[in-house]
Amino acid sequence: MRTRYFLALVTAGTLTLTACGSGSGSDDDRTLTWASTGGQFQEDEKTALQEPFTAATDTAFKNVSPADPAQVRAMVKSGRTIWDLANMSWIYAGAYCGTLYEKLDHPDLDRDLFPKGTTGDCFVPTYRFANVFSYNEDLFPGKKPSTIKDFFDTKGFPGKRIVFDYPKNGLLEAALVSDGVKPDELYPLDVDRAFRKLDTIKSQLIFAPSYGAVQQMLVDKQASMVITVTARAIAAADSGANLKAVWDFNTTDIGALVIPKGSPRSKLAQDAIAFAVEPEQAKEYAKLTGTAPARVDIDINSVDYSDRQKSFNAFLPDRGRLTEQSKEWWIEHTDEVLERWTEWKVG
């Protein structure tokens, strides 16, 4: 089923090019317009990825946010693409490769450099992260959660559970493993079974509308447990949440820089992506964000992480069972799972 997730985000009739960032794209052939998440994550991109590329190639960057896939659709459909690079989920580039996103054929983007199953024709990973299960130590002075099953044990471990309001948040996979499915047998996901398991904790789930909301809720102790992305777990802990990661089972995923179809500087944009995943830049970005380098030839132990970053990094040794979220399965089924997720929440 070809995903129509754009339509779940925003009605096509409401899209306007004025929403695509402040101002229009530069006419300068050496200026790349880079769309991303905003906030500290985008500042880290500037420091680790953009500034070194500027120094090496004399390329300038114009930064805009947020990197909304609906805006990519609007630009491409109007024939006025003004973004050259966007940090957004690989799902969009996978579902609309060649129509809304450019194929990547740069010679330095050898797919063998990246973990199996993490690449597509229109994306390669620029970093890796996990959907980390953590709990607030202040709320469990006695027995501590130690397995993914404890996330679903509201009697033994009471309290609300926070998840980002989007089904690819690691919760479906966690539900299935908690229900007895082996991590290496998760895909294709048994969605019916997953939702039956989620029914058992539905009343204790908090669906956060953004990762910023996840972070603030954790700091405010609105919940005892969370499944959230690596960077937000670190940020919440930095902000005062006394979080402890549980290394039993977690899903892993990738972040990607993609090129909207029709970018006037697509070749230079591919150069920038190839540069961003080179070891020096990849390690610096990992150090700043707490994520992991994407390339298999980079030793994660060579990254100078802080102790807190290490405490939430799923790719370090002895971090339990990890399963990479299937790119093929999620690209194919996101639309139907999102519809099921939305109906389930209100049902």
Overview of this protein structure:
The protein is of the alpha/beta class and 347 residues long. Helices cover 35% and strands 16% of the residues. It has twelve helices and ten strands. Helix 2 links the parallel strand 1 and strand 2. Helix 2 runs antiparallel to helix 10 and helix 5 crosses helix 6.
Short description:
The chain has 347 residues and is of the alpha/beta class.
Shape by Cα distribution: globular
Low-confidence stretches are 1-27
Number of strands: 10
Largest sheet: 10 strands, mixed
The amount of helix comes to 25-40%
Number of helices: 12
The helix/strand series, from N terminus to C terminus, equals HEHEHEHEEHHEHEHEEHHHEH
The mean pLDDT is: 92
Structural class by SSE content: alpha/beta
Report the β-strand fraction as a percent range: 15-25%
End-to-end CA span:
24 Å
Q: What is the radius of gyration?
A: 20 Å
